[in-house]
């Protein structure tokens, strides 16, 4: 059993790892968004949804192997599905909502999307930590 201080330190380290994966994910999301928007002339909201899903898959891979590597799962497919349903759906809905609102407010689609990513980050950490990458002692 970890002490409170040890648990807080562990949470801080996990938060830093989460943000490192997230920073790489931002690069993936913005690159896919620009590619779909500028390269294929896709509508910015459809391009945003596809870019978020590409990032969700990227982030799952790295969270599984880096951020929550200590919380192994015997059912990788079920965890990916849970990740997509929890954080993936929230990320897509949140990014679409915030991006649309910010674009309507006059911000360009790219900075609007970057702000949307930041707004969704805290909730995504909580969803991942409590629902997707559940510690062995809390699993049923």
The averaged pLDDT comes out at 89
What is the C-alpha radius of gyration, as a whole number of Å? 16 Å
Q: List low-pLDDT spans.
A: none
Distance between the termini: 19 Å
Structural class: mainly alpha
Q: Compute the number of strand runs.
A: 0
Query: Could you state the order of secondary-structure elements as H and E?
Result: HHHH
Description:
It is a single chain. Helix 1 (4-39) packs antiparallel against helix 2, helix 2 (44-67) crosses helix 3 and helix 3 runs antiparallel to helix 4 (109-132). The chain has helices at residues 4-39, 44-67, 76-104, 109-132. Helix content is 81%, strand content 0%. The protein is mainly alpha-helical and 140 residues long.
Write the topology of this structure:
Blueprint: H1 4-39, H2 44-67, H3 76-104, H4 109-132
């Amino acid at each position: 059993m970890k002490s409170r201080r040890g648990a807080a330190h562990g949470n801080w380290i996990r938060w830093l790892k989460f943000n490192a994966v997230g920073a790489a994910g931002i690069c993936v999301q913005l690159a896919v968004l620009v590619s779909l928007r500028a390269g294929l002339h896709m509508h910015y909201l459809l391009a945003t949804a596809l870019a978020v899903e590409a990032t969700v898959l990227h982030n799952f891979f790295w969270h599984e192997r880096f951020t929550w590597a200590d919380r192994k799962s015997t059912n990788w497919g079920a965890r990916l599905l849970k990740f997509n349903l929890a954080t993936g759906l929230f990320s897509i809905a949140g990014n679409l909502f915030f991006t649309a609102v910010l674009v309507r407010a006059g911000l360009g689609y790219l900075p609007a999307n970057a702000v949307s990513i930041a707004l969704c980050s805290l909730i995504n950490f909580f969803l991942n930590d409590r629902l997707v990458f559940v510690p062995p002692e809390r699993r049923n």
